[in-house]
Every structure is written in C-alpha cells, then in structure tokens.
Amino acid sequence: MLRISSVENLRYPVSCSFHFTCLRTSTENDKTFSEKLANGPRFEDFLKDKKYDGKLKLEKGESGRLRLPPWLKTEIPIGKSYSNLKAQLRQLRLSTVCEEARCPNIGECWGGGSHGTATATIMLMGDTCTRGCRFCSVKTARVPPPLDAEEPVNTASAITDWGLDYVVLTSVDRDDLKDGGASHIASTVKELKKRSNILVECLVPDFRGNEDCVATIVNSNLDVYAHNIETVERLTPFVRDRRAQYRQSLAVLKAAKKLNPKLITKSSIMLGLGETDEEVEQTMRDLRDVGVDALTLGQYMQPTKRHLKVIEYVTPEKFKAWEKLGNELGFLYTASGPLVRSSYKAGEYFLTNILKQRKKSQRIDDQSSLETRTKDIV
C-alpha cells in the first residue's frame, strides 16, 4: 500500500496496509524533534465529550451491536484534497487499502484534516487476497489475477516523482505464488533505493513461515520490517485465516531480526475483539521477546455485517495505559489509540529520525575508521 503525508503537521489516524508516506522537512527548523512531538495533537483533542455513559462492551452471549462512541466518529470524506488524491490514484490504477478495507480514517487521511496532511494507502500485488481473515473486508480468491511484472518499476517511478521521504509498502497475501510475492515486494524496494535515498518500511505477509522469503525481503535493503500479529494467541484461530498462526508470526519477526539485527522490526495489535488485559500484555511481551522495536495498538472496527462484531470499544484512557506499558517494556516506539492503525504518521516521523540518526552515526564511524587506518598506514 502506499501512503502520502508530510511531516510538517502530524495527525493521529493512519492507514493499515501497503502505503507510501511522505515525510517532508518541517518549516519550523528551529524546533527540536521532541518539541514537535510534545506540541503535536493528543487523543484528547479528538474527543468531543470526554465522559461517555454508553455501553462499551457486549456481555457473553449478548446479541446486537454496540453504538459507536464519540471518539470513533469520523467525518464523511469531502474536500479538495480528498477528491484530488482519489482522482490521482485512479489515474495511476492503484488499489487502496483505505477503500478495500473500509478504513474509518479515509476522510481524515485523504482529506488531510485540519493540518492539511494527505494520506493514502495502496496495495502491491493487486486488490485480491488469498486469505479470508474475519476482520478484513479485502476481497479474496484462491487464485487472484497474475502479478503485474511492471508494478515494481512503475510504483518506484511514481513515488520518486512525488518526492517522498518515507514509504511503507504492503500487500495482499499471495499463497498461490511459490514465494508468496516476496521477490515482487523486494524488487519494488530495490527500484526505490536505486532511484533515491527514500526510507522504506515493508508491511509484509507471514509467507507461511518460510525464512527464505523473509530473507528476500530483509536483503532488499529496506529500513523497517513490519508484520502484524493482529490479535492475542487465544483469538488468533477465530480472527485470522487458518493459515495465519500466532507463533508463526512471532517466528517471522524473530527471523527478520536475526537476519539483520540492525533492522527495525514492527508489529500491530487490534483491540476490542474480546481479549483480556492479561492477554494483551502477554502479546506485547512476546513481541518484545522476539526483538520487535515498534508497536501500534488500535481499535478493531467492524467493516461490514458479515465480519466479526466489536466486543468492546476500548477507551482512550486505556489505550494510553497500553502506550505507557509499551514504553516500559522497551519498545523504541509505541503508538496506541482508538484510531491508530498499523501505519502511524507520528510513528513514521519518529522512526525516520531514528533511521537518519543511525545512518549519520554510521557515516561518522566509517569516517573515523578510515582516518585511523590511514594514520596506521602512514
């Protein structure tokens, strides 16, 4: 998927699949990164009424659906930015996970919100998935259409022309392909790196646990390896496709870190499906145990009546508590909030600064090493 945004203004809601994110240099160059984060919007800013007396959780065996609490109500997609972005994506014949997955943030992201930050999410390898997770409304088929061999080059060319600084690529699952599409995704990353110094995050499938496929992605020279655990272990068989397994996802993230310890790894958890606090905490600990660096937690939203019902609407205060725990557990970055999705603008801004600092430090170390060797020779 492809997401476009600018770092001049940060906004909470983000996309949840393949996307390109543009993080442009802020015009307020005199401010430090910490100051910008501190002065940015907080979740309370999105709440029209902090006190809500409505029902937030279904009891066991209870039918019906919960009413949407005020902090999850979003505006109808309108505005010039929304219309322009939609027209541009149609012209490029790009599929968006924003539309396919019925993301509740589409109006906020495409419309740019009050800060004018436009965001879109595009999927690589088409709009049809081979899996049928019970939380996702992306269409499925046993054998989707064949891959577009020109997609890596065309996608990279488009992103380069847009002048993006940070890109997140994701895709549908393609179990019909021998390598699950790993080489196709890797080719797109290589094409991007060939054309610019853009930072690349890949939100990828589990490739059925095949470490060779994981290695293909890791060796593509990407900067952030993302794979979503989605939910707690107990609920995984009921929430995700039967081919997606909790321990398998952990193994994939562990393998990526083992292949390149310097690589930032990232995952995401949906809340509101009936999980307990103890299970969420255990999932967070499991992710840290396999070296995951960045974590996002967001509210599950039922895309259609055919999909899993929301069991509970988690309050912003509870999300804040999970963010605090994430920081205590040692994640480099924890994004936690009702409208947070697996891709998170402030998170990408934060990761961008980490990556740039790492690259800068590496250049300094390389220069120092070169100077030392030169002195030894002399």
Automatic annotation (TrEMBL):
| Superkingdom assignment | Eukaryota
Q: What is its main location?
A: mitochondrion
Q: Tell me which residues make up the Radical SAM core domain.
A: 114-332
Q: What is its EC number?
A: 2.8.1.8
* GO CC field: mitochondrion
Q: Does the keyword S-adenosyl-L-methionine apply?
A: yes
Q: How is the co-factor bound, per the entry?
A: Binds 2 [4Fe-4S] clusters per subunit. One cluster is coordinated with 3 cysteines and an exchangeable S-adenosyl-L-methionine.
Key words of the record: 4Fe-4S, Iron, Iron-sulfur, Metal-binding, Mitochondrion, S-adenosyl-L-methionine, Transferase
Its UniProt entry gives the catalysed reaction(s) as: [[Fe-S] cluster scaffold protein carrying a second [4Fe-4S](2+) cluster] + N(6)-octanoyl-L-lysyl-[protein] + 2 oxidized [2Fe-2S]-[ferredoxin] + 2 S-adenosyl-L-methionine + 4 H(+) = [[Fe-S] cluster scaffold protein] + N(6)-[(R)-dihydrolipoyl]-L-lysyl-[protein] + 4 Fe(3+) + 2 hydrogen sulfide + 2 5'-deoxyadenosine + 2 L-methionine + 2 reduced [2Fe-2S]-[ferredoxin]
Pathway entry: Protein modification; protein lipoylation via endogenous pathway; protein N(6)-(lipoyl)lysine from octanoyl-[acyl-carrier-protein]: step 2/2
GO annotation terms (biological process) = protein lipoylation
Name the cofactor(s): [4Fe-4S] cluster
Where is [4Fe-4S] cluster 2 annotated to bind?
A: C129, C133, C136
Care to name a GO molecular-function term for this sequence? Answer: 4 iron, 4 sulfur cluster binding
Please tell me where [4Fe-4S] cluster 1 binds in this chain.
C98, C103, C109, S343
Per UniProt, subcellular location reads as: Mitochondrion
NCBIfam families recorded: lipA, PRK05481.1, PRK12928.1
- Homology family: Belongs to the radical SAM superfamily. Lipoyl synthase family.
What name is this protein filed under?
Lipoyl synthase, mitochondrial
- Origin organism of this chain? Ooceraea biroi
